[in-house]
Amino acid sequence: MTLQELTAAFAEQYAQRPIPADGPIDTSHIDTTPDTDEFDAVWQQVIAETRARGNDFHLPLSVAYARRLCDAYPQADRELVLVATLLHDTGWAHVDEDRIISEGFRGDWRKSDIRFEHELQGCEVAKRVLPGLGYSDEFIAKVTAIIDGHDTRQEAHSIEDALMRDADRSWRFDRVGIALASGWFGQTPDYYTDRLEEEIIPELITEAAIAMAHADLKRSRDLLKTAVLR
Ligand SMILES: [Fe+2]
Ligand SMILES: [Fe+2]
Questions:
Q1: Chain segment 135-188, per-residue pLDDT in tens
Q2: pLDDT, mean over the chain
Q3: Phi and psi for 19 in degrees, rounded to 5?
């Protein structure tokens, strides 16, 4: 099937949005997610890539949220979601650092050239790292199909793609994501958290991600006193 056909089939299969969860939704603070060494072999291959653009926070946190999303959507291929999430932004380490700020966070950043470049470079990282760890060509192709376009494609083409996309946004509602991303965009926490509510929650695809986002946003706003410090 072509990407277009896959996207259309997924939209038809999951016509109800946000996508209702079949499994449990855990809205407790992400700190309570237990650590696991499940993908340490993959992490070890991308240490250099975690040093770019806040990835050393963004990637582990996104994987922690992805685990919860997989619990809520047990029909998804868990390993695919988690490996794709772990690797999705590794491409930032292979694009020009200065352009990350000048193009990646300003204006219509979702359509900037550097966005497409970090997606392609992330696919290259997956193709470099995963074969040596015993992952099949078929699995790797599914991983790169998710990484390719994760920021620039409008629509998800599978439940795994949808969960990765929601995991990529979920970390932003935690105080770590707020601290890092409000700095990237040059915005104060009160303004940034308002934007999260108005712009990012409506982009979430799954019921579970929306519930987690609301719970995190409430906790973060209370903790950061954004109602007063504005
Ligand atoms: Fe990205
Ligand atoms: Fe990301």
A1: 999 999 999 999 999 999 999 999 999 999 999 999 999 999 999 999 988 999
A2: 94
A3: -70, 120
Distance 189 CA to ligand 1 centre (A): 22
Cα-to-centroid distance, 168 and ligand 1 (Å): 8
pTM of this structure: 0.95
Residue 34's φ and ψ, nearest 5 degrees, are -65, 145
Across 113-131, average pLDDT: 95
What is the 65 CA–ligand 2 centroid distance (Å)? 12
Q: Do the domain assignments include residue 18?
A: no
> How confident is the model over 86-95, as a mean pLDDT?
96
The per-residue pLDDT for 184 is: 86
* DSSP element (H, E) containing 67: helix 55-72
Is 158 within the bounds of a domain? yes
Surrounding ion ligand 1 within 5 Å at CB are 89, 151
When divided into structural domains, the chain yields a total of: 1
Residue recorded with tokens 């932003």: 172
- Look up the CATH number of the domain holding residue 51: 1.10.3210.10
Do residues 176 and 61 lie in contact, with contact meaning Cβ atoms separated by under 8 Å?
yes
What are the beta bridge partners of residue 19? 206
90: domain range?
3-10+39-224
